[in-house]
Automatic annotation (TrEMBL), chain A:
Name of the featured protein: Small-conductance mechanosensitive channel
Record-annotated membrane-spanning stretches: 16-35, 55-79
The keyword Cell inner membrane is annotated on this UniProt entry: yes
PANTHER family reported in the protein's UniProt record: SMALL-CONDUCTANCE MECHANOSENSITIVE CHANNEL (PTHR30221)
Family of this protein: Belongs to the MscS (TC 1.A.23) family.
Length: 276, 404
């Protein structure tokens, strides 16, 4: 009988007025979240450069803010927000979560952390456990990544706790691209280096305030050249790499520089070492 | 007593001369000293705001005008030739010659100007004045083949000139060798002493692609509204331009003739031309195109028998052909390529753009239809009235832009 009275004191009397208020809060919260998320996404997609990323970064933060405000209004309607009541409620919730909804809640908490720490935000190009693509949406529980093959991959935020997150542009507009050339060892390396630099310099996608670096690395099968350069917009990365590759090959072929042809065994070894 | 009287008599004349010098649009300065006119930033915000309001309330509603365009008509070619004849670049060539005396030891001096800024005319006139030879231009085939024969043809001369460096390269893997070799010879003094005219966008690109550190670079100083008013007032062939009113405000923006007592009496008169100067980033060539293409006269004059007082109207400077905010990558890349090369022929588009010739051509056609591009001597270039909005778009998308 005493327990019942204690529980009754924990929760306020939920009359019809309280139910209406909770309903209004719920509907308003959902509506506000939908409008803010769609509105900010719509706006960001029409912007370019740094401003685009700043608006995108506001998407999860705005949602978090709306939720916190909604909870701050709703909780006093349901319970008497005394210290004793809060400890009792949070203890009961912690027990339930610890047994049944551990991963789900872990993802939700990681979602809050991601909104504050910003390891990724919409518009970023990230690699999480081998999934590479553009972050399209940072939700409460998952982050949605669109891969270059147009697959939409939902990755739970809880990966944040124990996985490395590779962010190629980190909320900025500079994203390094690499175009590789595998050449037969017999060639004039200085000339190749100069030509590959010119290939980058004459690309229409090139971002000029970032450096162009041509890296040469000697391998048992030949020489591996890499052009490291930045496109004007991260979204142009595949077009940029393709442009560098196509025009680089054209120049090298015209000059009679032959590509390195690997024997099948070496190729297989290389493949396995790359996948590892 | 005599010195005092002389002073009193001479003072107004001296002051008039110094005002005239201050109002001269032909000040050649080092690139580091170039300044855009006052309100240039405000002009850019205004342009952005206009795009937003046009999108929200429609283009017609966002442009409230004191005088409707339908009440006006374009000026016939004869009147335009009289009131807005082509810019005579000879004073700039003279100013360039004066400033160049400070660079006697430099093997090369660059004179840069934005598109439609007249650098080719200025350097050609300078070369003509000084009896200096202009170096030959490469052919299109030589640029695409990477041939250096045209550089070999440029032998050593005591003085030489290149009116438009943008015709000496192509943003193509083979198209940089020639200009690199030429500039290497020129900068080392092996060609003699020379003056190179160059588009400001080409200069920005070649700074990265070739490297032009330490070369003296000169340009025309940006004009303020007052200087524009003075220039336009004196532009008419008989020196008497009718009063010009703004269609946006309905107010006088250029008083009759070059009478300084009238045109200088009220600074408000220059506000509209300051707006134009800011919109054009102080570039005379572009401002002149606005002046010429946006001057109107009342339409009903032809129906009346009496001779009314001549008056002209200037349409709003911001109401030019504009790029939509959602302009795609193909159009943006094409515009950037055209600016870097100071205009291109159709056959060159496929060589400098990362898409097929057909795609490049259809993008070019679409932009030409919108009035963003125009054709000059077979080369497609960004039209003067669209230049400001194109530059702003490219800058907002982080493309390489010029420093002027």
């Amino acid at each position: 009988m005493d327990d019942q009275e204690q529980y009754a004191r924990l929760f306020n009397d939920i009359d019809s007025q309280a139910l209406v208020a909770l309903g209004v809060i719920l509907v308003s919260t959902v509506l506000l979240i939908i409008v803010s998320q769609r509105g900010l996404n719509w706006l960001a997609n029409r912007l370019h450069g740094q401003l685009r990323f700043r608006v995108f970064a506001l998407v999860p933060l705005t949602r978090l803010l709306i939720l916190v405000v909604a909870l701050a209004i709703a909780i006093p309607i349901v319970i008497e927000p005394s210290l004793r009541n809060m400890v009792t409620l949070l203890g009961a919730l912690g027990l339930a979560i610890g047994f049944a909804l551990k991963d789900y809640v872990s993802s939700l908490i990681a979602g809050v952390v991601s909104a504050v720490e910003l390891p990724y935000r919409p518009g970023d190009w990230v690699n999480i456990e081998g999934t590479y693509g553009e972050v399209k949406h940072v939700g409460m529980r998952t982050v949605e990544i669109q891969t270059p093959d147009d697959d939409l991959v939902s990755v739970p935020h809880l990966k944040l706790w124990d996985s490395a997150i590779y962010n190629a542009n980190n909320g900025g507009i500079s994203l390094q691209c690499v175009a590789s050339f595998y050449l037969h060892p017999e060639h004039e390396a200085g000339w190749v280096r100069k030509v590959l630099r010119d290939v980058a310099l004459t690309s229409a996608y090139l971002k000029f305030d970032k450096p162009i670096i041509v890296v040469a690395e000697e391998k048992p099968w030949g020489t591996h050249y890499r052009i490291r350069a930045y496109p004007v917009d991260p979204r142009q990365q595949f077009l940029f790499t393709t442009d560098l590759t196509v025009r680089g090959k054209q120049m090298l072929n015209a000059a009679g520089v032959t590509p390195a042809l690997l024997p099948p065994s070496t190729a297989l070894d290389l493949q396995s070492s790359t996948s590892q | 007593m005599l010195p005092l009287i002389t002073f009193i008599i001479l003072r107004p004349a001296m002051s008039k001369r110094s005002t005239k010098a201050a109002l001269s649009p032909w000040e050649v300065v080092a690139l580091e000293s170039f300044q855009t006119p006052e309100q240039t930033q405000i002009s850019q915000w205004r342009r952005s705001w206009r795009v937003v309001t046009a999108w929200m309330v429609g283009k017609e509603s966002s442009e409230r005008q004191a005088k409707q365009e339908s009440e006006l008509r374009a000026l016939p070619e004869v009147k335009l030739a009289h009131w807005a004849p082509a810019i005579d670049w000879l004073p700039t060539a003279n100013a360039l010659n004066n400033v160049m005396k400070e660079y006697r030891d430099a093997p090369v001096v660059l004179f840069i100007s934005p598109p439609h800024g007249g650098h080719a005319s200025v350097v050609s006139l300078w070369a003509q004045q000084q009896g200096v030879n202009c170096l030959p231009m490469p052919t299109f085939a030589e640029l695409t083949d990477g041939s250096l024969e045209w550089v070999e043809r440029c032998g050593h001369q005591r003085y030489w000139a290149i009116p438009s460096l943008e015709r000496h390269f192509l943003r193509h893997t083979q198209g940089l060798q020639g200009v690199r070799e030429l500039l290497e010879r020129a900068l080392s003094g092996r060609l003699g002493q020379g003056v190179i005219g160059c588009d400001s966008w080409t200069y920005a690109y070649l700074q990265h692609a070739v490297g032009l550190e330490g070369v003296p670079v000169l340009t025309l100083q940006g004009l303020e509204g007052k200087q524009l008013a003075h220039y336009f007032a004196d532009l008419a062939r008989d020196g008497k331009c009718p009063p010009v009113y703004s269609t946006r405000t309905g107010k006088l923006i250029l008083a009759n003739g070059s009478d300084e007592s009238t045109s200088g009496k009220n600074d408000d008169v220059h506000k509209e031309l300051q707006r134009l100067a800011a919109h054009c980033r102080g570039h005379l060539g572009i401002a002149w195109h606005y002046w010429r293409e946006r001057l109107r006269e009342p339409a009903e004059r032809c129906n009346t028998d009496e001779q009314p007082q001549e008056e002209l109207w200037l349409l709003d400077a911001l109401a030019e052909a504009e790029l939509p905010a959602d302009t795609g990558d193909v159009a943006t890349l094409l515009l950037h390529a055209l600016l870097i090369h100071g205009g291109l022929e159709d056959q060159a588009l496929g060589h400098v753009l990362p898409f097929s010739h057909h795609e490049a051509l259809s993008a070019r056609l679409a932009l030409a239809r919108q009035g963003i591009l125009d054709c000059h001597q077979g080369r497609w270039q960004v039209s003067p009235l669209s230049y400001a909005s194109v530059r702003q778009l490219l800058e907002s998308r982080h493309y390489l832009v010029d420093s002027l």
